[in-house]
């Protein structure tokens, strides 16, 4: 396999590390980053992404189906009587009501209090040192700056095409054809380029996983600002004096519960008893660990609530216990593995056990058919950096990039 040109999707730590080591090896590298800055998940944005459908959208549609529909609507030769006609209408309505930049590059899940939970010495990149006297645990802005400084120190910023979204990537003959859209002064510039190889470094935290709990869609429809995914959580301030149910018991859920502890009246953290749930001892005193969710009750009213009124319904746990007087529900229920720019490698109708040898994603829980979580087995000109969970991310992902 003769590789001279490489496309990289994403300019977080995985994409920047990949660009550095490939460029050092003499390859021509182009990094596509839909935001206007490097740093990935650690870049804070006070704006929030549009929420997905309830229950969650299928993995192959990713986190911005409205922008995909907009591209269809603005494509040359698009017909108004085509099957995507309603999508086109919905997309244009979305642009009227929402910032085009948010559709093009949805803000990530970074919240004001986010910090690393693996020490900075364990996260150090071979390509760049931490500044002297960097503490073991730092805030998100320090981590984002470290990634940006690493890119600058290794002369890869010039290789990054910012504000550029990869819409589709497909192998045609011996080349990867990459279709992209760049947002410039409110206008969408589209391009098609070819590369010898493609590296996906787009991260995990884009497409929220919304479980299919009975009656949850009705709660979301009636009280949309009261039912949210943790991706749009930014600070505990809006929850002061409120009763909050946080669903999930992993790292993000526990971190959010700890932040809420200083302002909320009462917190419940719902856990199904998963392998990676954190210990209840890490929760604040006003937070109670409860069991998994069975259903949401039928609402007794859908009238507009004042700020201090709880949602007029209850949440039924698997044990039969009911939780009442809930003001807010935060779903810290994770994300789908999702590569919407590789739609032909998704099979939304298959189970993981029945994934073919070519399929990357089925239910969105794992990425299939990768050798050592990096190389796509049917065609190693496609590689993934940053797929593993529950690891020392920076150092491991750089190690993967060096492979």
TrEMBL record:
The keyword Signal is annotated on this UniProt entry: no
Transmembrane segments: none
GO MF, one example: flavin adenine dinucleotide binding
Gene3D superfamilies xrefs: FAD/NAD(P)-binding domain
Keyword terms of this UniProt record: FAD, Flavoprotein, Monooxygenase, NADP, Oxidoreductase
Superkingdom of the organism of origin: Eukaryota
Family membership: Belongs to the FMO family.
Protein name per the record: Dimethylaniline monooxygenase
Organism, as annotated: Aureobasidium pullulans
